[in-house]
Amino acid sequence: MNYSRQREEVLEQLSCHIDHPTADVIYSELREKDPTISLATVYRNLKLLAQNGSIRRLTFVSGADHFEHKLNPHYHFVCDFCGKVIDVPMQVAETLDEAASQYISGKITGHDLVFHGICDECKAAEKLSVRDDDRL
Amino acid sequence: MNYSRQREEVLEQLSCHIDHPTADVIYSELREKDPTISLATVYRNLKLLAQNGSIRRLTFVSGADHFEHKLNPHYHFVCDFCGKVIDVPMQVAETLDEAASQYISGKITGHDLVFHGICDECKAAEKLSVRDDDRL
DNA sequence: TTATGTGCAAATCATTTGCAAGATC
DNA sequence: GATCTTGCAAATGATTTGCACATAA
Questions:
Q1: Does the beta-carbon distance from B69 to A17 stay under 8 Å?
Q2: Could you tell me the pTM of the whole model?
């Protein structure tokens, strides 16, 4: 990955946020300093930076939202290669909510726990062909 | 909420999935049984059903993706009213990954933990005015 | 017989892509 | 100079909305 002023700006702008802005927020803020930067460049660089691990995209699964019928509460596993969502039938840890309540002032009603990794099928496929990570 | 055949169909179609389909998948499947149902109706009903708690929409924050500069790993709190994302500086529980690995066959690389609830500002505002939950 | 829900098409929002021009190595 | 990156505008994908008609209470 070559150097680019715009990518540097995107990273710097994100770094000075204590909250978690959207691409559009970053774009609007950058426009004030650099009136020619384009939204596409912001999106492109956010994606690149997320792929190389410098920043994190907060998302459950990329693409369209997924739905499930509400049964008993449970956790999920998302394959970061194919995007598949699998239920994890492990015990839900209610104690986590109590632990977190000491750190935030709002009222906690529950939590979502999503494990990330590679599913068996993708793990097998990965051995054969290296892929360019288009997700993230 | 009145009864509607279409809403019933959406709920039933989702119930018979062990995976986590998108709105479009539900729509395509329903079209075979009920060739006149519209995509808008599927979206509308998925939203209503999620709002009334019958089903769950799998999403981190609704709307555009959010980004953060990667510091040390940490958890998040999302206000279900205003959508705000706040860092939770509690200790990350690596033991969760081990626990989950007994239930799934893929390789786990990490996890995301998102607490849900109501932030202080919304909690205060809520006392004054009841809102119609447009999120979800 | 009023409020609610539907189907359709158009609108909107988030994100990506094609392409010609500019920057980097 | 070959390759990577940008800006712009157009394209795409996901979801919502306006409106006239149909259905439920």
A1: yes
A2: 0.91
